[in-house]
Amino acid sequence: MIDTTIYPRLIEPHLVEALADSPAVLIHGPRQCGKTTLARIVGSSRGYRYVTFDDDVVRSAAQDDPLGFAAGLPERVILDEVQKAPALFPALKIEIDRRRTPGRFLLTGSTHVLLVPRLSESLAGRLQTLRLHPLAQCELEQRDPDFLDTLFAGEFTIARTERLGEDLTRRITGGGYPAALTRPPGRRRANWYHDHVDALVQHDVRDLARIRQLETLPRLLAAAAGQTARMFNVSDLAAPFELSRPTIRDYVTLLERVFLLERLPAWHSNRLTRLVKRPKLHLADTGVASALLGLDAPALAYDRVLLGQLLETFVLQELRRQASWHDARMSFHHFRDKDGVEVDIVIERGATAVAGVEVKASGTVRSGDFRGLRKLRGVLADRFASGVVLYDGEATVPFGDRLYGVPVRRLFGR
What we know:
alpha/beta
């Protein structure tokens, strides 16, 4: 079991940096991923007071008299779950414009707050946003993450490491939510994840939209879990429900806004035709996906199809978590053409470099596994940084120009 207080978050230096020059800083991400803990740790040594809008009285006061509420706030304040008080946003703008002191407001939000019109309009140019994910494996291991730097430098060297084996399925089914990881694996942890999804639906989703059939959303999320790492297909998702395709699409968007689902866009190039342009669907955390599918580590190891899907999602989310505190801005895609040539994850770093990651739930890697990466390399030429096939093996080995077979364990840092 894990005591999350001993696991510092690797995004913390970026938060401290943002508070030094931005009047308002927003940490957003799913509920229970550690936003409040991080804000209070950083704020405690800097004189921040704490206010939460989960408190009905506080929320009512902010909604009824936003100008008076904002004027009465302390010099430095943490405003927790700020999306629950949208009427406050214009008042915060007035306070910031009146006195533009760096680090005045440290906000947290459990929905894509910038999609709330009042906030995006009111605090444009005044707000820096940081995305906090559930715990990354390198945070749990307390190792320095260097995978992305090595990937874009193309500097993987021949080496051996211990394969993960059974530990891989334990990590996948465990997920990264701090509170879930304090529970023992199995029923207790799965119950936490089910309760977490229900709470998000009953509170955050209900706040975002008036939906008559809220009970459909956990079932839809479970259906999406079975399709994680597959092409997004509204018809397939709608099939078990007596709902229209537009309604299902709207529900998927709501689940994205509370950080439970994501659509991974297709990568494209003017030099390639016959590309598949549909996004892939991914759960935002494999612990949630495993609980919804009723999978513990032994059951996942037995189901090789789902293991492949969940491992791909697991790798994508680990890379996203590491990118969230990286100095370079990165964007994530997938690549597939109509001949079935594909790369699971394509990462663009700025406008100059692209890397590819293929994921294989196997203890071996062969030349044929690099088919998609070779095509990507041929299209990109000098822009292609490197490509790796991540597999559950022991050896890091080259497979030609800028191509490597790399054990999944290498993703967790050195």
